[in-house]
Backbone:
């Protein structure tokens, strides 16, 4: 399997994170990061935290693949180690008001311990972090130039059926309908089906650990069909037309401005675009 | 005589924040009818590469004049790695395959069997070019699409 880093650096592509940023977060943020290539003003600590969490769950899954199950304490120690290493490699991390490295370490250890105790040990681990690179083909057979690239966190089998799994941490419990509307399952299931023989579309499951004082483990399953795939294809085509025309605008009422690493550039964005002209009457 | 028009355009940021400047060049050449599809595609590829290189050179010069150097491309928008089939080439290849009812799985199996590459996205330019020739020849014969799984047993050089 070609590593994601190699795939992503070797050709232009679409990814879930890029499309989510453009379609759902803020097209102007997308443009600052990926089109105008503005430097980030900071790195949010949540990125580093998420990375340590994923690396821990990846290690837990590798043990599962060999029929070894880590104890809660072993999982806690693993996270502490990954978190420590993460802190050594990241610079200019921005913490929120009530956060610091030690509090996050304790929270992370609690989250992975919760995950570890709630694992379904009967699931067969098929693959960990497998990558995919597939063409985006619309209903008329039109092929987009940039392929879709991604990496599944985990592929398991339940009752002989494949199931794609994505790991998440969340500040709050998820609304039951959220997974059914989310962009990621659509893109990942599209990617998966493109690489397989024709057949039923499998299920996608979010494994979420909610950052409550006592962490809560949630699973949300969903799937998609050809209509959802064609709908997202049309959205991607629209995004490409918007990018070609540089139609980027700030999404100012979303919840993402607070943690946006381009807020300075955003505040100045409109000033180069237009001028007020005073016109005297009479 | 076959006429080929190769065009390449690119937008780059200008000194004014969040605005860009478009560079565009096109060239028209005439080629012999006698060229095989593979040769024809190779000539188109060479011509396009020339136009693209020229535009990129112009952009570099322009950027130096304005005092603003284009930022290195992000991973998401980086150019195709050296020697690898371009996205445009693979788009054409995939379009041909799709028209013939062939899926990515079939193409990837062919790449694995014949080039020891995992997928079409790992092919070199010449390998992708040969696969395009094969698909064009297959299309010319108007072979009806075969069941997807059969290609694993196909003799070398043939996609069924």
Residues:
């Amino acid at each position: 399997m070609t590593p994601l880093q190699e795939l992503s650096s070797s050709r232009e592509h679409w990814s879930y994170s890029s499309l989510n940023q453009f379609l759902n977060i803020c097209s102007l943020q997308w443009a600052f990061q990926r089109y105008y290539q503005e430097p980030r003003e900071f790195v949010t600590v949540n990125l580093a935290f998420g990375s340590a969490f994923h690396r821990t769950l990846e290690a837990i899954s590798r043990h599962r693949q060999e029929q070894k199950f880590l104890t809660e304490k072993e999982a806690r120690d693993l996270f502490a180690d990954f978190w420590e290493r993460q802190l050594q490699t990241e610079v200019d991390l921005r913490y929120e008001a009530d956060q610091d490295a030690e509090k996050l370490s304790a929270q992370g250890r609690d989250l992975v311990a919760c995950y570890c105790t709630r694992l379904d040990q009967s699931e067969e681990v098929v693959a960990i972090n497998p990558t995919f690179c597939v063409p985006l083909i619309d209903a008329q057979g039109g092929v987009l130039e940039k392929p879709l690239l991604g990496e599944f966190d985990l592929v398991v089998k339940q009752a002989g059926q494949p199931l794609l799994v994505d790991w998440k941490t969340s500040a709050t419990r998820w609304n039951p309908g959220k997974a059914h509307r989310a962009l990621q399952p659509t893109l990942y299931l599209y990617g998966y089906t493109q690489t397989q023989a024709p057949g039923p579309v499998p299920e996608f499951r979010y494994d979420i650990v909610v950052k409550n004082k006592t962490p809560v483990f949630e699973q949300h399953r969903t799937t998609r069909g050809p209509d959802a795939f064609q709908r997202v294809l049309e959205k991607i085509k629209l995004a490409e037309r918007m990018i070609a025309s540089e139609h980027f605008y700030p999404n100012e009422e979303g919840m993402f401005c607070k943690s946006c690493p381009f807020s300075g550039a955003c505040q100045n964005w409109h000033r180069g675009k237009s001028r007020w002209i005073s016109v005297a009457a009479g | 005589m076959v006429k080929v028009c190769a065009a390449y355009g690119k937008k780059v940021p200008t000194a004014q924040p969040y605005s860009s400047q478009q560079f565009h060049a096109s060239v028209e050449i005439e080629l012999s009818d006698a060229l095989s599809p593979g040769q024809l595609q190779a000539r188109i590829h060479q011509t396009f590469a020339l136009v693209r290189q020229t535009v990129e050179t112009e952009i570099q010069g322009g950027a130096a004049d304005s005092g603003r150097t284009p930022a290195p491309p992000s991973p998401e928008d980086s150019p195709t790695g050296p020697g690898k089939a371009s996205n445009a080439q693979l788009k054409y290849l995939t379009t041909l395959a799709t028209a013939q009812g062939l899926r990515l799985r079939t193409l990837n199996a062919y790449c694995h069997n014949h080039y020891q590459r995992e997928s079409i996205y790992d092919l070199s330019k010449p390998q992708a070019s040969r696969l395009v020739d094969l698909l064009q020849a297959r299309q010319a014969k108007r072979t009806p699409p075969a069941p997807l799984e059969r290609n694993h047993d196909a003799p070398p050089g043939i996609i069924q």
In short: Chain B touches chain A at residues 11, 13, 16-20, 71-81, 84, 86-88, 90-91, 94-95, 98-99, 103-105, 108, 118-119, 121-122, 148-149 (CB under 8 Å). The longest strand of chain B covers residues 2-13. Confidence is low (pLDDT under 50) at residues 63-70, 72-79, 148-157 of chain B.
